Amino acid sequence: MPHRVAVLALDGLLPFELGIPQRIFGRSLSSTPGGRSGKLYDVVTCSVRPPGPVRTDADFSILVEHGPEALATADTVVVPASYELGPVFEEGRLTEELASAFARIRPGTRMVSICTGSYVLAAAGYLDGRPATTHWSSADHFQRTFPQVRVDPDVLFIDDGDVLTSAGVAAGIDLCLHLVRRDHGAAVANEIARRTVVPPHRDGGQAQYIHRPVPEPQFATTTAARAWALARLDRPILLRDMAQQEAMSVRTFTRRFREEVGVSPGQWLTQQRVERARHLLESSDLSIDQVARDAGFGTATSLRQHLQAALGVPPTVYRRTFRASADTP
């Protein structure tokens, strides 16, 4: 059976965010013997009330065909943002309707929030003592309202196992693609990203989107250096080599790279090499030593260390997991 995702539509919801899970999970397909495709996820939208209209923050309402009973059937529950959270936002407590709806959720269900949907998860107690994020403009208020939550305002999303939270709006796409990648591997997630015309993985965090004074007109980007590095990940890449691609000093390049991408050049290179290694492990029969060389880690030991740090598993386990997933109808 496909993994069931229940999307909770609350009054005051943002239509864009409500559509993200359907667009990402609803388009996820698996290849089965005989060349047929099957759905990996079954996505349903539900309300805290019986089926009927739900207000949005736009000039229209939506007709939701499932009530809160759908939450009891979910393997994953997604809570998009709403501008009408009332006591959830103001006092950090669930309304009676929300509390009754959440009581239907089975223990062990994966919980996901998009943007300020994190307020609902926090008010329900899912984030107590755990790391979480939300839209950067609400981060301070969120932390004051829920001091027991370890708020990180700089990241696009946080994966804490069975509870995941994302930053504002489009970061919900990043998080949903991450879940597909986690569940079924990079190849499936990349194909969905291509069809959705979005990057499979965005660099950096929210810091790059926070309003700042307009930079000076002569501000140069680091795009060419990143493209140059991506074309030769299998070779040694020095910071000064990247800086030379933009005709900058190392110091200036490092500062501007962090301003644009949200992480240092070294961190970004490691991220890209991990992604290359994941793709090779999933899609090729190359030895671990060859994967390490092609991804730019040099040795199998270095690859193991970086993959363990990034994903929590060594290369052989990662390959076995996603090869088994790909071979299972």
Plain-language structure description:
- This protein is an alpha/beta fold.
- The chain has 14 helices and 12 strands.
- It has a 6-stranded mixed β-sheet with strand order 4-1-7-8-12-11.
- Strand 5 (52-55) and strand 6 (61-64) form a beta hairpin.
- Helix 11 packs across helix 14 (315-327).
- The N and C termini lie close together (10 Å).
What count of helical segments does DSSP give?
Answer: 14
Q: Give the class from helix and strand content and strand pairing.
A: alpha/beta
- Rg for CA atoms: 21 Å
Rounded mean pLDDT score: 88
Q: Main sheet? A: 6 strands, mixed
Fraction of helical residues: 40-55%
Shape: globular
Strand order of the largest sheet: 4-1-7-8-12-11
Beta-strand portion reads 5-15%
Poorly predicted spans:
208-218
Reconstruct the topology from this structure.
Elements: E1 3-8, H1 15-25, E2 29-31, E3 37-39, E4 41-46, E5 52-55, E6 61-64, E7 76-79, H2 87-91, H3 96-102, E8 110-113, H4 118-123, E9 131-132, H5 139-145, E10 150-151, E11 157-159, E12 163-166, H6 171-184, H7 186-196, H8 223-230, H9 239-245, H10 250-261, H11 265-283, H12 288-294, H13 300-311, H14 315-327
Parallel strand pairs: 1-4, 1-7, 7-8, 8-12, 9-10
Antiparallel strand pairs: 2-3, 5-6, 11-12
Helix pairs in contact: 1-6, 6-7, 8-9, 9-10, 11-12, 11-13, 11-14, 12-13
